[in-house]
């Protein structure tokens, strides 16, 4: 009975947006158009912002919150496709372009913009087969999403090579792969269709062409989509007659005829494996090498922390906790204690409240909120719940978990605010709910203003901004107050030593323990531990490829957390040994400086990848650096909180293990 119940549960369980859909022969299949993206610039545009062919009625398809924020909008298209019906040289439309419109098309071709489309939730892609040098018998399919708007025409012999000419891809050959519904599909979660079970769509490819179409006489718009053209045959095999490429002429404008082919091919790939070509790993050895390199850094830091705890501190503990001492030995020990410098001499000041204590408590609460959000998101992603097939699910989950984690944020900030003896509890709670989200929302709004001005498709509509505001004030803020209420009701943190009313004078510090140098060293090792994985993430985003290696990302995130904690402990101990007891903000800034390295690397990536025109365009670069700043600000708060919490536990441990009169 238990097994039967599990089987029935498996049959009825689908992740949202990824349930299979079977099509019968002759069914209409809707092809959707989306966005125009480029690897040369961060600006993204909607498909219909260029003068392409439109249906009589363009319908904007519904989207979730993640899709709305990413600008991943989808619309109906003028393409007409019938299940398993091969068709060639179908006419989409004829467009007459002004010089200005031709110039706009050429600009998009120069920046290598690509058109994104999807069919049955599969993204359109150009596929190519590669062969490995060390394994010539092994081949692998690699993809490039969408198809290019146009390309640069290679100059012929005798032409001026300094004059660039661009062509427009106005003919598309769609290759759609199908797989029949099998009995296993019907038994385990497949569709229930009477009679012909139909077929699944398991592949969606495109081969773009540039063809200057010709036709006889006047253009007969009533014959669309079967206008007879002199440049390709219809409906035999779609072979092309001799033709010239469709040149983009920004001086004179001109006429363009858009056409397309549809080929249906059987594929042995099952529906459950149709995303494998997009998600396959071609460089897993590099990831493992990166993780091993990060583990070496982690072991090095662990060795230093272990050395401090076992060799240095244990000797001090033995000296200070020795009970069987003669009176002479006690007097000698007291004399040495008075003359000795080190972390033991600042025991009465080490828990003295720092300056800007309320702000520190607020940031620690926000850091814990981000930490729990990252852990939950990575766990759900590693279990497969956030598949790229469910568009926008990853970003929606990040927002969902961040909003719900307002409870631990309010609780932690309240506990530390109470420990610092801050009297205005309401102000602390309100700052926790407003400081970090408010800064992120402000930066996001400013970037969105730039995108609105540029008419980019990633510009978030006003309605989505209202939804985000409602989530912030209607859900997150009350949860922060609920957590703070529990935090202020809890007991104050107990510490092993009392604080003197008069602060101890701090001796001059060596230059290598100054705050700037500590931040340089404190951020370098954690960044070195995650550098390779960060390269893959930024490259995937920049190249508009799917990143789905969340197992590796979980390991790297764990290594990052431990590295930040250990480097903060080591530097904190060195500061205490020089009688510098103001460790609160130092521990936060030391590990938080990892974000500075990440921002610098992101800036280098932009300068190396972006088109020269995008680098000098303030509006284009501000979009990239705006989102990079938001991400690095969150990483700064997260890693800084990790360093602070580790140092707080470390200091409580070492001062709680010695006896002080």
Question: What is the structure about, briefly put?
Answer:
The chain is α+β, with helices and mostly antiparallel strands and 661 residues long. It contains 18 helices and 16 strands.
Give a verbal description of the structure.
The chain is elongated, with a radius of gyration of 31 Å. By secondary structure, the protein is an alpha+beta fold. It contains 18 helices and 16 strands. The chain is 49% helix and 14% strand. The strands form 5 sheets. Strands 2, 3, 4, 7, 8 and 11 form a 6-stranded antiparallel β-sheet that branches. A 4-stranded mixed β-sheet has the order 6-16-14-15. A hairpin with a 2-residue loop joins strand 7 (113-119) and strand 8. Mean pLDDT is 82; it is low at 1-17 and 187-195.
Structural descriptors:
661 residues; alpha+beta; 6-stranded antiparallel sheet; 4-stranded mixed sheet; 18 helices; 16 strands
Helix content: 40-55%
The radius of gyration computed from the alpha-carbon positions, rounded to a whole number of angstroms, is 31 Å
How many distinct beta strands?
Answer: 16
Mean pLDDT: 82
Tell me, briefly, the overall form.
elongated
> Treating each run of at least 4 consecutive H or I residues as one helix, how many helices?
18
Binned strand content: 5-15%
**Major β-sheet, in short?**
6 strands, antiparallel
* Structural class by SSE content: alpha+beta
User: End-to-end span in angstroms?
Assistant: 68 Å
Low-confidence stretches: 1-17, 187-195
């Amino acid at each position: 009975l238990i097994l039967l119940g599990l089987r029935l549960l498996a049959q009825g369980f689908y992740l949202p947006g990824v349930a299979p859909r079977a099509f019968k022969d002759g069914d209409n299949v809707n092809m959707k158009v989306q966005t125009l993206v480029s690897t040369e610039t961060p600006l993204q545009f909607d498909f219909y912002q260029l003068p392409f062919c439109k249906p009589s009625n363009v319908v904007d398809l519904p989207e979730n919150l993640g899709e709305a924020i990413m600008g991943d909008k989808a619309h109906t298209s003028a393409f007409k496709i019938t299940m398993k019906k091969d068709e060639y040289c179908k006419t989409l439309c004829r467009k007459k372009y002004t010089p200005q419109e031709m110039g706009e098309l050429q600009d998009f071709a120069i920046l290598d913009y690509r058109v994104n489309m999807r069919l049955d939730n599969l993204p359109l892609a150009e596929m190519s087969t590669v062969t490995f040098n060390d394994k010539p018998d092994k081949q692998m399919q690699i993809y490039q999403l969408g198809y290019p708007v146009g390309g640069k025409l290679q100059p012929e012999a005798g032409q001026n090579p300094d004059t660039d000419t661009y062509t427009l891809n106005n003919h598309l050959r769609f290759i759609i792969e199908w797989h029949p519904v099998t009995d296993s599909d019907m038994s385990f979660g497949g569709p229930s269709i009477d009679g012909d079970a139909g077929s699944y769509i398991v592949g969606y490819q495109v081969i773009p062409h540039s063809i200057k179409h010709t036709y006889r006489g006047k253009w007969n718009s009533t014959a669309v989509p079967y206008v007879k053209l002199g440049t390709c045959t219809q409906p035999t095999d779609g072979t092309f007659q001799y033709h010239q490429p469709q040149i983009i002429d920004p001086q004179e404008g001109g006429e363009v005829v858009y056409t397309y082919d549809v080929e249906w091919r059987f594929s042995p790939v099952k529906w459950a494996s149709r995303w494998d070509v997009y998600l396959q790993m071609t460089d897993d050895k590099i990831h493992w090498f990166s993780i091993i390199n990060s583990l070496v850094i982690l072991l090095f830091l662990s060795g230093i922390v272990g050395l401090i705890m076992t060799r240095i501190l244990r000797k001090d503990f033995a000296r200070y906790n020795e009970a069987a001492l003669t009176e002479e030995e006690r007097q000698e020990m007291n004399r040495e204690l008075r003359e000795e410098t080190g972390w033991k001499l600042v025991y009465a000041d080490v828990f003295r409240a720092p300056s800007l204590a309320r702000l520190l408590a607020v940031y620690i609460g926000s850091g814990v909120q981000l930490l729990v959000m990252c852990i939950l998101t990575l766990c759900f992603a590693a279990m497969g719940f956030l598949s790229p097939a469910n568009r926008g699910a990853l970003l929606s989950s990040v927002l969902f978990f961040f909003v719900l984690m307002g409870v631990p944020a309010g609780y932690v900030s309240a506990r530390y605010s109470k420990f610092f003896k801050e009297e205005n509890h309401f102000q602390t709670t309100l700052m926790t709910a407003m400081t970090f989200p408010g800064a992120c929302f402000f930066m996001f709004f400013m970037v969105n203003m730039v995108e609105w001005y540029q008419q980019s498709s990633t510009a978030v509509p006003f309605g989505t901004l209202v939804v985000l505001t409602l989530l912030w004030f209607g859900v997150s803020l009350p949860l922060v107050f609920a957590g703070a209420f529990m935090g202020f009701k809890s007991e104050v943190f107990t510490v092993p030593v009392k604080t003197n009313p008069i602060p101890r004078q701090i001796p001059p510090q060596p230059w290598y323990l100054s705050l700037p140098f500590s931040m340089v060293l404190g951020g370098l090792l954690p960044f070195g531990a995650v550098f390779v994985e960060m390269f893959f993430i930024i490259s995937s985003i920049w190249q508009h490829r799917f990143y789905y290696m969340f197992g590796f990302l979980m390991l790297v995130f764990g290594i990052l957390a431990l590295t930040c904690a250990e480097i903060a402990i080591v530097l904190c101990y060195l500061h205490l040994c020089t009688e510098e007891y103001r460790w609160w903000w130092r521990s936060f800034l030391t590990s938080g400086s990892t974000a500075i390295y990440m921002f610098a690397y992101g800036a280098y990536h932009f300068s190396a990848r972006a088109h020269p025109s995008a680098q000098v365009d303030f509006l284009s670069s501000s979009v990239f650096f705006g989102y990079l700043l938001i991400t690095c600000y969150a990483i700064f708060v997260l890693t800084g909180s990790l360093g602070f919490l580790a140092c707080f536990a470390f200091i409580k441990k070492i001062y709680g293990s010695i006896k002080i009169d």
